[in-house]
Every structure is written in C-alpha cells, then in structure tokens.
Amino acid sequence: MLSAPATKPRPVPVTWSAVLRLPHCSRLLAATLIGRLPHGMAPVAVLLAARADGLGYSGGAALAALYGAGIAAGQPLLGRLADRMGQTRPLISSALASTTLLLVLALTGTANLPLAATVTAAAGLTSPPLEAGLRALWPRIVPTPAHLRAAYALDSGSQELVYAAGPLLATVTAALAGPRAALAATALLGLAGTLVVAHAAPSRTWQPTGLWAAGTPGALRPPGLRLLLLSLTAVGVALGALNVAALASADHHGTTWLSGAIPAALSLGAIAGNALLSRHALTTPLHTQLSFAAAAFALAWLPLQFEAPPFLLLFAAMLPGIAFGPLLTTAYHCIDVLAAPGTTTESFGWLVSSFGIGTAIGSAVAGAADGSWLVPAAAAACALLLAVTLRPFLTPPAAPRTKQMP
C-alpha cells in the first residue's frame, strides 16, 4: 500500500511581538523613532517660530521645505558614508551637527531669513541616517526571512508615529514654552535617540562589506533599483498631493479639522495594513507581492474621486493607507534584493530621498491643480506601471539576506 505523499508544512507568520522580543530589536526601533522625531517636529516648529518672528506662513513654509529638501539630499550621502566606514562615525557626527544647527536656530530665531534658511537647510542635510541604518541592520539581527518580513512591516508601520506624534509634540511644546523651546526640544530628542542607536551593539559592530570602492557610481548603478526608486517617487507624489487635496476638501466642506484628519486617517490605515500583513506568511514571488500592493494602492484612490461627506471621506482616505503599508514593506524587501553589494545603507537612503522628492513634486502639482484628487490617483497609477516593469529584475526571487549577530 502506497503511503500518502508528505505535505509541505505551511509557513507560520511571525508576529511583531516576536520581533520585539529578539535581542536589541525593541531598543533599536524605539531609539530610531525618537531620533527621527525631528523629521516630524522640525517643520512644524520652524513654521511656528517664523510666524512668531513676523515672517508669516509663507516664510515658515519655505523654511520647512528647505529642511525637507536637506533631508532628501543628505540621506543617500550619509548612507554612503556608513556603507564605507560603518555606522558609528556618520551617526554621531551628523547628529552633533544637526543638533547644533537646530539649537543655533532656536537661539537666533528666524527674523534673519537668509541665515535661518542656511541653518535650516544644513540641519536637514546633516540629519542622521537612522531610517536607512536600521533597515541595513534588520537582516543582521533577525534569524529568518519570516522574521525579516515582520521586522520590515513593524518598521514601516511604526514610522507613521513620527509624523503623527512629531507635529503634536512640537505644537504642545510651543504652546507651553514658545516656538524656540520647541526647536530646542526637537534638537535634543534627535540627539538622544541617535546616541542610543549608535551605542547599541549591532550598530556599533556593523561593518561594511569592503566592496565599496572610490569612483564607483554608488547605489544607483543597478537598473532594477533605479526603477523601484522611480516607482516610490510616484508614491511620494501621491502622498504629497494628498496633503493639498485634504486642505482643499476641508475648505470645500467648511471643516478645518479635515485637513489634518485625512492624512492622519491614511497613517492609521498604513499601520492597520501592516498589522494585517504580518498575520500572513506570504509565499508568492516578490514581484507578485509588489505588483499586487501597487495595484491595491492605485485602486484605493478611486473612492476619493467622488463627492462624499467628511466622515465618509475619512474612511475613504484610510484605503490608500491600508495598501501603502504593505507596499512600503514589500519595497524594503525589494531594496534588500536589488541593492548592489556594499550599498545597502545608501540604497535605503535613496528610498527616503525618493519619498521626499516625490512629496515635494506632489504638493506643487496638486497646488496647481487646486487640490484635485485626480493628482494622487494618477501618481499611484504611474507607481503601478513602474512596479510592474520590475518583474525581470525580481525573477527568480532571491531570499533576503539574514545573518544572526553574535
């Protein structure tokens, strides 16, 4: 009598709590989030300081944009330094520089606009590469690809807290102690978080591969990575356009709170989407996961094209977020596969830069289009088309790199 063929065991999903119980993981994640709070706090603190100094919202918005542009320019450069010399020196030196510059801004104010613009842009340019650094560490501190997927989902979901808690902290601090105190608090929180990360054993002992060489074109040489970054730039365009469309919707409905509630709804959706993703162990090829997530993100903007009352609009705004969380998590896996050896941190730095550039473009285009919801929908469709073209570069799928730290 023939025995029944052995069935392949189904993969078991790894929960977020299982990742957080691993050595170093909870400490690194929490410290990274604290160190990145300036990304959410500084634009609001600068805007409030400019208003208090009589520059108005236009001057404050220009300074906040310069800070964001500095981050977009600096993250790949600092990431490349980390790939070349390890994480410790780039993290600590950039944190000290950015903290000093923000404290100078807190002391001098924004009344001297050329000085304030220079200091603000430089503070963004020297913002520590914590986001890219943590994603370069995950494969070293988790034991299996399943743990890596859960870690990336946890990372992607928790980063929404930076942009939810950061503005709130800046606003509350400014209300209690003044805008300059908010700038000082921003600087000190960023420094504290960075120092904890830099002194953690995985970051301190992280070593570059030695494959970096002077004169190499850096992380952007693989064509698959360039296509992925273009797709993520289009995703950033959609997110930047969302903020303007939310403001236009608030004006249309005569409800000021809607301009902040719509982006918050998308952030909550992203957290929920990643939580749902982490409950399932996916076995489909990576290119299929990316294409499916990009398609869901594109389709999720369709309900926002129709007239709806404010509370239905909030529900509709959660839908792109639910798709965005898994899309971003899958993009982390794609970068881990597509990045050239020795350029992992720089590659993740370019991801940060892509979103920053896309957000700026989206804000400008949506402003010219009077906040039309067609702009984020069109950008999401472009992101889908670019994601689909990545299939040849992700086939056959490669297993993400994981190496347990001693």
Fold topology:
Blueprint: H1 16-20, H2 25-35, H3 37-52, H4 56-85, H5 88-108, H6 113-125, H7 130-141, H8 145-158, H9 160-177, H10 179-199, H11 201-205, H12 223-253, H13 258-277, H14 286-299, H15 310-338, H16 344-368, H17 374-388
Helix pairs in contact: 2-7, 2-10, 3-4, 3-9, 3-10, 4-5, 4-6, 4-16, 5-6, 5-10, 7-16, 8-13, 8-15, 9-10, 9-13, 12-13, 12-15, 12-16, 12-17, 13-15, 14-15, 14-17
Walk me through the structure.
The chain has 2 domains: 16-208, MFS general substrate transporter like domains (Growth Hormone, Chain: A); 218-398, MFS general substrate transporter like domains (Growth Hormone, Chain: A), CATH 1.20.1250. The chain is an all-alpha fold. Helix content is 74%, strand content 0%. The longest helix is centred in the middle third of the chain and has 31 residues, at 223-253.
Concise account of the structure shown:
The protein has 406 residues and is mainly alpha-helical. It has 17 helices and no strands.
Q: What is the CATH class of the largest domain?
A: Mainly Alpha
Helix content: over 70%
CATH-scheme architecture of the largest domain: Up-down Bundle
Can you say what the CATH homologous superfamily of the largest domain is? MFS general substrate transporter like domains
Stretches where pLDDT falls below 50 for ≥5 residues?
1-6
Query: In angstroms, what separates the terminal alpha carbons?
Result: 49 Å
- Main beta-sheet annotation: none
* Domains, number: 2
- Quantity of strands, as a count: 0
Rounded mean pLDDT is: 87
The fraction of residues assigned to DSSP E strands is: under 5%
Reported by name, the CATH topology of the largest domain is Growth Hormone, Chain: A
Compressed to H and E, one letter per element, the order equals HHHHHHHHHHHHHHHHH
What's the Cα radius of gyration? 21 Å
Which secondary-structure class do the elements indicate?
A: mainly alpha
